[in-house]
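hey so i finally got around to running the thing on that chain from the lab meeting. sorry it took forever, my laptop kept dying and i had to restart like 3 times. anyway pasting the input first so we r on the same page abt which one it is
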Amino acid sequence: MGPQKAAAMSRAHLARSWSQWGGLLLLAVAPLAHAVDGAYGRVIVKLKPDASVLRNSVVQVQSVASSGQSPQAMQRLGQRRGLVVQDGRELGPHVHVAMAQGMSSEALAAVLAKDSDVLYAVPDRLRRLHSVYPNDPLFSDVGNPNVAAGQWFLRTPGVDAPAAAINAQAAWNTVRGTGVTVAEVDTGVRADHPDLLNKLRAGYNMISYKSVSGLPVAGRSADASDLGDWVDQAGIDAISAELGVTVDCKVQATSDWHGTKVAGIIGAEANNGIGGASVAPGAMILPVRALGKCGGWDSDIIAGMRWASGEDVGTGPNRIVAPSTPARVINMSLGGRRRLLTGLQGCHCRHHGTSCGDRGLGWQ
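ok and heres what got predicted. didnt touch it at all, straight out
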């Protein structure tokens, strides 16, 4: 199977998918715990502002400034705890990814969390999409005379749609989302979709690994295009080789195009005679690609959220400048059985006057 299959999904199929997905904006993201635990630990670490490992790196920062290398704060932290730790990406001020062979993510987090320089240390998990399309008879209009055809979920509940409809028609008389930017942290978007051609701001790809992103080179890039998340066995083997651990991922013959579907539900162009309508046809979409083949890491998802909210991501030559028009709303619809996105602790959405402080937004 080649890239041609990823591009085979027609625009008509995407438009039909929006109708099917419209009543459900849930995205279940299940952890692939055993894909990384046991042999290879990955942890998101938040250091205190006055951490000694940061102070000790001042001289090193000056000495490597010309080479563009970053101080190895996590390596020094690991040495202090008797571990061999490798530095990953820096997510934001004092927020780092630490990696170590031969121990689980939970064990690595437990050891690093005991250090006096550390505010918190949590596993950086690999997550993937799961469809939660229900089989309830009232969800679909197919063969059901009691449900209005088309995008029933936008209509008036109890009048021409079931009670689950959101009555968007009434809201459109007052507001349509004009002037609001909504970030969609997902699989990216198909920018060639006619209902999105005039609705997209310049986004970003936050996926770190080329085998996950489907790009020819590793690293993040200023292109949030969804290249598809289909994967064959050769692709799974490539991901395992790049990550250095066997990934529990199944062959997927076709792509979900989930980010495009949700972007269309949020803000597809309306009254243009094609495709479907959307909840907020006046809003603009800021696409952020953080999920690819076999899923995506919490650290990439968090980086995408920080960037979309108006914060720079990373430092030095790896610094990604915040978007000129940050999002007022970030849509992810994340869920899972384990604690999610604890690494948002210390995140400050300065542009909109909100702050989650150091207790974070993690939940069970």
